[in-house]
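On clarity, I found the account of how folds are encoded harder to follow than it need be. What matters is that the chain and its backbone geometry are given together, residue for residue. For the editor and my fellow referees, an illustration may be useful. For illustration, here is how one protein appears when written out as sequence plus structure tokens:

___
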Amino acid sequence: MGVSNKITAVLNFTALLCSIPIMASGIWLASKPDNECIRSFRWPIFVLGVLILLVSLTGFIGAYFNKQGLLALYLFCMAALIILLLVVLIFAFTVTKPDGSYGVPGRAYREYRLDGFSKWLRDYVTDSGNWQKIRVCLAESDTCPNLTQNYITADQFFAAHISPLQSGCCKPPTACGYNYVNPNLWINPVNPSADPDCLLWNNDQNILCYNCNSCRAGLLGNLRKEWRRANVILIVAVVILIWVYVIACSAFKNAQTEELFSRYKQGWV
């Protein structure tokens, strides 16, 4: 195996290692309650990581056994995957840039407005067709029941940094003026006309605020928070992959030159 092929093999092994955090971030995203309820959001990052792993493995085998056809296929596929990863990153940053959260006096947690998020997220995630399935899934999860196990008094709950999903779906908006009994039980609103969601709140544990716009907004808040965390890992990975790809292209050209020079020498011997 020539020097250039050795370099290419090492670089492909590095790219293979880069696929691991990408797949890990995909699994982490898929395990979140909100992504469990939105199937199309669950596995795209994980699948992308698997593809990078397979392509890197192809390049490693091609370099190790000096298979120029496999190396050419690797370079083409890796370029396509890097472009796809960049598109995913740009799209994710664009749709998660708007932040619909706002602070509430006397509360450690934030609340969320639906119109504060990107139009694509609002239209895709919270339209009536998708929301009915998401609503049922959220009601069956332990997102809201967990609050009653973790917080007992009002002071404990108001000082808690609960998730956007819990803030939007598990309690009524603060503006309604409901009185706290427990995190999932609120009574006697002082200002029920302050927000349309005030009248949608129901102490039935299967209903709560799952029909509220605040719940839709909380779901988008969760998605935004999680995807922006995952984007950090993806940025680091794509920078390394681009660096690996550029050097691999150079090594591939050098390998071809070495092969031509070897044939030329054999022709003269």
User: Anything to note?
Assistant: The chain has a mean pLDDT of 85. The two ends are 21 Å apart (CA to CA). The first strand starts at residue 101 and ends at 103. The CA atoms of residues 74 and 114 lie 44 Å apart.
